[in-house]
Design goal:
The protein is α/β, with parallel strands linked by helices. The protein has 11 helices and 11 strands. Strands 3, 4, 5, 6, 9, 10 and 11 form a 7-stranded mixed sheet that branches.
Amino acid sequence: MELAQVRYFHAVARHGSFSAAARALGMTQPGLTKAVRRLEASLDCALFIRLPRGVALTEQGQALLRHAGLLEVQLLDARGEVRALGRGAVGVLRIGAGPSWLSRALPRIVAELSARYPGLSFQVEAGFNRSLTEALRAGDLDFVVSALPDRSPVGLQAISLTTDTISVVAGQHHPLRKRRRPQPLSTLAYSWVLPGRDVLLRLRLEALFRVAGLEPPAAKIESDSISFIGAVLRNSDMLSFATSQVLRSEMGGVAPLFIPGLAMTRSAGILYRSSAGVTPAMRALIEAIKRLAKELGVN
């Protein structure tokens, strides 16, 4: 099995036909077909089912596709690292950022590095953990700065930098503030506005409810917009779950509710692909984030 053959296979799988893949690769369809057939012969299996229009992957083809995508990302990482070593901190850094990093730390860091390294430019994408991590693994991002999962996903390296507190939050005049010591059960009498089901923050909230022996609250409203969630809380008796940093920076008029069993600390920091190495541009970003994290103390 040769790298070129894997690249050709990946192109056919991505485009769904030999003709479309051949055009994208700038080669003839017979040449591409021959290369893929040699790959199938070396693996002693069929990778594609030929359809009246296009192709579909066999079970073996689906297995190879999972590895082929990662291999292409690793090759791109290797090429980028080798080229960057001779050029210094230049090129484009693609950064994914969680909500609190996006509003507080990252603008300052990007502005500082832009001034220091004229040959370095940035693309910044906002999001929550799962979508950012998937983009990172797919090679669409170089870094993610956000809350860190309890275990680093396969193929990714983590640098833990800060800690923060997550708790139930509500508007300043919520009825539960009048109670001396509200319990987890009492929060279920109210509606909740929460991020999507695959967001790490929500998964951690659900885990805390289950530890307390309760079913997690359903989301009356789902939104990945921190500003929207804050506005809903200010104008209703609904509840949510947020970090202390987000409260300080983006949720004026909203404050934590101290409820036993429904608060926790989390780590935040940097995620990057293990295969990427550390280019001069990446090193500059990591050092800048480390310096600012020390100064801020929390995320």
